């Protein structure tokens, strides 16, 4: 049986493909209050504004290409059982070739009923407009987990990490919960983080190998480190 590597990725890995985060000045989030477009209250106040914002994000995401970090993780499946848990809502992991991807915060390529969350539809890169309805007659909304909403994939993600032989974290500051709490379930296994930040919750933790490099550069180095820990090559 092949060793199991679980990878937790955040906005930093997608940023290197040109996808801005809400912290980026001049990026797609500029001019928007995050709670106006990424909360259930914002949706209830102005659904048209929210749809417009995510239509822009969807267009941007589909124009981006996977970078070296995405490709390296997909290639690692030739050696390990790799499961990617991502906080990102783009499809860059899948487009790079990763076959096991868990989206904690939803997916831009899907829409769902604004009433029944189990009514989910694949829309690809198409826009959602006011008047587009789910089969229950409700307005379609982005299939995104907003502030104030539960994260339905958390239990599955926790189980993946508990079953891991190694954990790799890429491009996340580990300050946004509940996703940041996932690392607490990785006990007694090799752990590596790739992030340029030095003031992180794990920066002084000697049980972590911290590679302070960009995702595209540091991911291959991190994989080599974990391959050696797991005695694979």
Strand order of the largest sheet: 3-2-1-7-8-9
Please tell me the overall pLDDT: 91
Radius of gyration (Å): 18 Å
Largest sheet features: 6 strands, parallel
Tally of DSSP β-strands: 9
What structural class do helix, strand and pairing data support?
Answer: alpha/beta
For the termini, the CA-CA separation is 15 Å
Q: Element order, helices and strands?
A: EHHHHHEHEEEEHEEEH
| Share of helix, binned | 25-40%
SSE map:
Layout: E1 4-9, H1 11-15, H2 34-37, H3 40-45, H4 47-63, H5 68-75, E2 81-86, H6 92-96, E3 101-103, E4 106-113, E5 120-122, E6 140-144, H7 154-162, E7 166-170, E8 191-194, E9 208-211, H8 215-229
Parallel strand pairs: 1-2, 1-7, 2-3, 7-8, 8-9
Antiparallel strand pairs: 4-5, 4-6
Helix pairs in contact: 5-8
Question: In words, what does this structure look like?
Answer:
The protein is an alpha/beta fold. Helix content is 30%, strand content 19%. It contains 8 helices and 9 strands. It has a 6-stranded parallel sheet, sandwiched between helices. A hairpin with a 6-residue loop joins strand 4 and strand 5.
Quick structural overview:
By secondary structure, the protein is α/β, with parallel strands linked by helices. It has helices spanning 11-15, 34-37, 40-45, 47-63, 68-75, 92-96, 154-162, 215-229; strands spanning 4-9, 81-86, 101-103, 106-113, 120-122, 140-144, 166-170, 191-194, 208-211. Helix 5 runs parallel beside helix 8.
């Amino acid at each position: 049986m092949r060793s199991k590597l679980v990878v937790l990725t955040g906005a930093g890995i997608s940023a290197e493909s040109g996808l801005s985060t809400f912290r980026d000045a001049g990026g797609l989030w500029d001019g928007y209050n995050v709670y106006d477009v990424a909360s259930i209250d914002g949706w209830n106040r102005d659904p048209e504004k929210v749809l417009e914002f995510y239509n822009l994000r969807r267009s941007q995401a589909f124009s981006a290409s996977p970078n070296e970090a995405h490709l390296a993780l997909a290639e690692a499946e030739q050696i390990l059982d790799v499961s990617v848990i991502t906080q990102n809502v783009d499809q860059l992991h899948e487009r790079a070739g990763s076959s096991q991807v868990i989206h904690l915060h939803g997916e831009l390529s899907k829409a769902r009923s604004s009433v029944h969350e189990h009514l989910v539809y694949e829309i690809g890169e198409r826009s959602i407009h006011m008047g587009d309805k789910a089969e229950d007659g409700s307005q379609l909304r982005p299939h995104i987990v907003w502030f104030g909403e539960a994260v339905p994939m958390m239990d599955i993600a926790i189980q993946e990490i508990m079953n891991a032989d190694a954990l790799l974290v890429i491009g996340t500051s580990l300050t946004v919960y509940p996703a940041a709490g996932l690392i607490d379930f990785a006990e007694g296994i090799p752990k590596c983080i790739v992030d340029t930040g030095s003031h992180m919750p794990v920066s002084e933790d000697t049980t972590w190998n911290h590679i302070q490099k960009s995702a595209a550069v540091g991911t291959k180095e991190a994989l080599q480190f974990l391959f050696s820990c797991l005695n694979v090559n």
